[in-house]
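Mods, move this if it's the wrong board.
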Amino acid sequence: MTDVAVLVLWILAVLLTWAGVVLAVFATRPKRHWLVVPSAIPVVGTLAFVMIAGGVPDAPVGLLGALHGLGLGLIGVIAGSPAVTLILRFASRDTVVLGAHGGILVRRPNEPAPAPREILRGGTTIGYLERIALIGSVVVGQAAAVAVIVAVKGLGRFSELENEQARERFIIGTLASLVWAGVCTAAIMLAA
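Not the wrong board. Structure tokens:
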């Protein structure tokens, strides 16, 4: 590949990646979660390019590589929430009632007509933090920290997992979030 072709390729990759970031931001809005699908194009495109071409040519300007990696990281963090929302919606099929604070409403078993209480509150914020921690730890070479992230989240939520709906939502949501962040991290690392 010529130097000009490599430069054009990197510029297009950066523009496409930052378009994905914009779509990821819009995907966080209510009833726009489907925008997470096109926001994943830069991630899938990077992984496909690496597999087909056998690698990524070095960025002719360091800033292009940094902007591309940062954009992929932002897609990993921001688009993770709407991706998890879509996956949970598909998995739950309207079997849970959402609470006012992002959690789910459940009833305690063996209580006569109890008022529902909201559990698993703050999942969106926790999701952002877990994806930042996962991407950051792998990028700096501390992949073992992912086990700590999962352990801390599990221990922190343990008391809320008495209900089967809560357990199911916790497991599916956590795995979807971590897989999303992991795929985005793979794209960052392979393109670096």
